[in-house]
Amino acid sequence: MDDRLAITLVTGFLGSGKTTLIRRYIETPAGADTGIIVNEFGEVGVDHSLFVHAAEQVELVDGGCLCCARREDVAKAMYRLVQLSQNGRSFSRAILETSGLADPAPIIATLERDPWLRTHVRLASVVAVIDAVAGLDNLRSQPEARRQISIADTVVLTKTDMRNAASAEELSAAVLKIAPDVTVLEAQEHDFRADAVLGGSGNPATNRLAFNEAQSSHSQDVSSFTIRLKEKIDWPAFTIWLTALLHAHGDRILRIKGLLETSSANTRLAIHGVQHVMHPPTHLPKGDDETGSFLVFITRGLEQQAISNSLQRLLRV
Ligand SMILES: Nc1nc2c(ncn2[C@@H]2O[C@H](COP(=O)(O)OP(=O)(O)OP(=O)(O)O)[C@@H](O)[C@H]2O)c(=O)[nH]1
Fold it and tell me: Domain boundary residue among 186, 215, 244?
């Protein structure tokens, strides 16, 4: 019997719905004893806060891009999970959420080539998430998005419930053009089972064995910066500001995430902007790890200073 820790790799472009899908899974009985490793492109992580109250063990690997700078850190996070698992904290499996800009191929290579990991960890499957709002554009314009699909065993379509969403059929056809033998599922379908997708025994694809690691690179012009805010935020004014910002610059703002302390709520708000779209915020209980309010931006060719100045103007009003 293969008693290595089975790991499912969850990939997908920035903001496509990876964390949401994993949260759905860890709320099922099957997901209860799952170790999670989350990598974020950005100097401050947000996703691990969204998991912390639900998952058994969460390891955050932040700061770099999974496909290059942080491979050793991801490997170390995997060592820690395996060791915890051997020291009485038994996980039924692990999930690795890659950063939205990552090419998953190098991390698969790390899993398959590192002698220690190879004997302790088994890649069960690669799940790629693509959303129906930005997905078609991303496939056209973002090489990382195509790469993520091409290497997957299963592709999960998200956000088909949203206004301006492409149809599942159109998105599915675009996915199958890149990866003809992939299984395509729709997260908003009533019979969609997150536990079957992320907790399944695995159906490793042969196509990913043929990847060429040397191709791995992501665009050089992408940058990430964090804006920290001392003041409590006036939420209605902030949403108007953010909506206007995304309307004007959404093509250059790939992703905004943040945790905000507002003047009206006793919780922290997790906010999500994905290109031109601002998603409804989620409330998080205040943790011990009070970091104040902060916003993480991932942009392509947009200066931090312009955004900071505009935000400061809002806060001074
Ligand atoms: N309406 C709708 N919203 C969704 C769906 N899936 C995800 N979202 C929202 O999309 C936003 C981004 O989702 P995340 O799960 O954080 O996306 P992610 O891929 O983990 O983002 P990164 O880690 O930054 O790449 C959040 O506000 C989610 O609530 C969906 O199927 N329908």
Answer: 215
Is there a single domain that holds both residue 161 and residue 295? no
Evaluate: CB of 110 within 6 angstroms of ligand 1.
no
Distance 311 CA to ligand 1 centre (A): 24
Strands 121-131 and 154-158: parallel
ipTM above 0.90, yes or no: yes
Q: How far is the CA of 116 from the centre of ligand 1 (A)?
A: 34
Number of helices and strands in the chain (H, E): 11, 12
- What does the pLDDT profile of the chain (317 residues) look like in tens digits? 678 888 999 999 999 999 999 989 988 888 888 888 887 766 555 565 555 544 556 666 655 554 554 567 778 888 888 888 777 667 778 899 988 888 888 888 888 888 888 898 889 999 999 999 999 999 998 888 998 999 899 999 999 999 999 999 999 999 999 999 899 999 999 999 999 999 866 555 544 545 544 454 555 577 888 888 887 888 888 988 998 888 888 888 888 988 888 877 777 888 988 888 889 888 877 766 566 788 988 888 888 888 888 888 877 75
Ligand 1 near 272 CB (within 6 A)? yes
**b vs e for 193-230, b when ≥16 Cβ sit within 10 Å of the residue's Cβ?**
ebeebbbbebeebebbeebeeeebebeeebbbbebebe
Structural domain for 274, as ranges = 222-316
Do 20 and 146 lie in a common domain?
Answer: yes
Cα 282 to middle of ligand 1, angstroms: 11
Q: Is 30 in the pocket of ligand 1 (CB under 6 A)?
A: no
CATH number at 282 reads 3.30.1220.10
